[in-house]
Design brief:
Layout lengths: L1 H12 L1 H26 L6 H13 L4 H32 L6 H6 L2 H4 L1 H20 L10 E4 L2 E4 L1 H10 L1 H28 L8 H27 L6
Antiparallel strand pairs: 1-2
Helix pairs in contact: 1-2, 2-4, 2-9, 2-10, 4-7, 7-9, 8-10, 9-10
């Protein structure tokens, strides 16, 4: 046990190990964000499509699939936030008297300097989003039902329209998506670098991939509340 625990302890406490853990948990979140967006965009296909998708999520593996996914996401979010904060604190402590090193700071991209803050803002948004649409606190979304193949299911279509019809919620969501894209534009490229995919030759291309991914997520996610506010959907 000692022979195994010592390398693991060193990995979790070393700077390199924590960077790898931040990258891996970030990869899980990047995949989830894309999948979540694709699923939500089914609302443009129609009421039946989004409701069938929501019903599938809650019935796969006899209802256990959604809880497995949620458990993985909770571990990924908590791990990502924890190890990012630890790395940030260690980096600041290591700089010490070099905190005024102008040359180092000027070379850092703005998004990288605010990664910890955008991450905390996103954590607050995730909590709000879960309370709003998943736990449905302070609303009557649990009473919304529709028929899928003749069976009553939760009316996700109506819930999304009702949720984003309140413009402050839509504005907050769009602001959060902007924050998410700032985080992703740096985080995805950093993830490639940490996991060893980024070289001098591939770095510009991978940076473009990061920007393109962030833009895709922003446009895709923001299209839903904007469409609701413009009256595109019919209740």
């Amino acid at each position: 046990m000692s022979a195994l625990s010592q390398p693991l302890t060193h990995f979790f406490t070393s700077s390199i190990g924590r960077k790898i853990l931040v990258a891996l948990t970030g990869l899980v979140l990047v995949i989830y964000v894309l999948g979540h967006m694709i699923g939500n965009l089914l609302i443009f296909v129609g009421r039946d499509a989004i409701n069938e998708y929501g019903h599938m999520l809650h019935t796969i593996l006899h209802g256990g699939g959604i809880w497995i996914a949620r458990a993985v996401m909770i571990v990924a979010v908590v791990g990502h936030v924890y190890f990012t904060i630890k790395l940030t604190a260690e980096n600041r402590a290591a700089r010490g008297s070099e905190r005024y090193g102008y040359n180092t700071v000027i070379k850092a991209r703005r998004s990288s300097l605010i990664m910890i803050w955008t991450g905390l803002i996103l954590l607050a948004f995730i909590i709000y989003h879960l309370l709003h649409f998943t736990l449905r606190v302070g609303n009557d979304y649990n009473t919304y039902t529709a028929l899928v193949d003749g069976k009553p299911v939760h009316d996700v279509y109506k819930m999304v329209i009702a949720g984003f019809s309140w413009w402050p919620a839509s504005v907050f969501y769009i602001i959060a998506m902007g924050t998410l894209c700032s985080h992703l534009s740096h985080g995805v490229s950093s993830m490639f670098q940490t996991l060893g995919f980024s070289t001098e030759k591939t770095r510009p291309t991978l940076q473009l991939v990061a920007y393109a991914y962030a833009a895709l997520i922003f446009v895709g996610n923001c299209s839903i509340p904007l469409a609701v506010l413009m009256g595109y959907f019919h209740k």
